[in-house]
Amino acid sequence: MLGSSRSVTAIVAALVGIAGLSYMLVKAVVPAAAVSPDAKAALVEFAPDGKLKQPVGYRTWVFVGEPLTPNDLNGGAANFPEFHDVYIDPESFAYYKKTGEFRDGTVMVKELTSVGSKKASSGNGYFQGEFTGLDTSIKDSKRFKDEPGYWAYFSFGHKYPLKAAVSKNPASACNQCHQENAKTDWVFSQYYPVLRAAAPHSK
Amino acid sequence: MLGSSRSVTAIVAALVGIAGLSYMLVKAVVPAAAVSPDAKAALVEFAPDGKLKQPVGYRTWVFVGEPLTPNDLNGGAANFPEFHDVYIDPESFAYYKKTGEFRDGTVMVKELTSVGSKKASSGNGYFQGEFTGLDTSIKDSKRFKDEPGYWAYFSFGHKYPLKAAVSKNPASACNQCHQENAKTDWVFSQYYPVLRAAAPHSK
Questions:
Q1: What residues make up the domain containing A148?
Q2: Is the peptide bond preceding residue B82 cis, with omega within 30 degrees of 0?
Q3: What is the pLDDT of residues B26-56, one digit of tens each?
């Protein structure tokens, strides 16, 4: 049916070209979205002076847990007022699910909110009000090679307006407490059933 | 270069076929992964008898908020003991961000955990213990056309082991309270700063 071997070559070349294009198309569309939903776009950024910029997109990261230290149980002024919404970036969560470990590059965000109400139709208790603060921790064996466990801690403030970019806190301010009291690699997994359930071989 | 118009027709057919295959490949790979990370795989399933099976994958959905009704503030036995971790499926969250509305098909999950500790290095308060319960609400104008607001409510139990599949609760058990007390379309947005911040034109 075909006129010559040159024709066949041309057709094969065309087919290969289209197949290649299709492959590139799939490659281009999939990885950023499929492997780690918001992680690529949302992971942290450092300013030229080394300060950490406010993380973005973390509210669609994986929720880890929510300790509550209300002001009314802490002499009117909790160290972390009051609800602590804690998130981990999705890729690091996927890694943790496989290994039970926090990979190099793990980012965790702790967003603080006030207590808005102490009574609702579901009962007496504590109900979230407004956002008040934002803290971030990052494990990075290169950038933070001198921090214990390679974890660095940042606070954008516990009262709005938050700072746009901040230097890491001294190890004595945050790292030391995490090192001494957190159960799993500087992370308070003892208060995070989501992490315990996700770890391999957990109950 | 080509021998006949039949050859050209055959080649065009082949190219169109490959292009079509490529398109199908892209379609097959992308939507489940890119548009809504875990939603396609994780959205709810009904048993043949109409009961709702336990939702899966919701711990990587979008965290909405966490009311707390501890037993110790509710006569030793809260109606919803004790932390309520509330999630919304990612596609419905994306729709809500655009419109401020809960789309038909919205699924929300409320996972209950016990209070594990009332004192930690961060202060006095409430810290999560273990998973204890699981509730789900679904807005569906076809399946639940007779429910007020089209919202149906399911409880898999507030004590482990949970039930594998359950019928919806009568409207008087859950829907009525949501209808009367929740601020936004049967959802308690007054306690969910994440939702308020995500809605269009919100502060």
A1: 52-202
A2: yes
A3: 333 333 334 444 445 448 999 999 999 999 9
pLDDT band at A64 (very low <50, low <70, confident <90, very high): very high
By CB neighbour count within 10 A (0-12 exposed, 13-18 middle, 19+ buried), where does A121 fall? exposed
> Number of residue pairs across A and B with CB atoms under 8 Å?
203
B143, pLDDT greater than 70: yes
Model pTM score: 0.80
pLDDT of B196 > 90? The answer is yes
* The pLDDT of residue A83: 98
CB contact under 8 A, B116 and A180: no
Q: Report the number of distinct structural domains present in chain A.
A: 2
Is A43 contained in some domain?
Answer: no
In a domain, A97, yes or no: yes
- Residues 11 through 40 of chain A touching chain B, CB cutoff 8 Å: 11, 14-15, 18-19, 21-22, 25-26, 29-30, 33-34, 37
Helical residues (DSSP H) of chain B, grouped into ranges: 5-30, 39-42, 90-99, 175-181, 193-198
For residue B164, the domain's CATH number is 3.50.70.20
Question: Could you tell me if B160 and B107 lie in one domain?
Answer: yes
Residues of B in contact with A109 (CB under 8 A): none
Q: For residues A189 and A195, is the Cβ–Cβ distance under 8 A?
A: yes
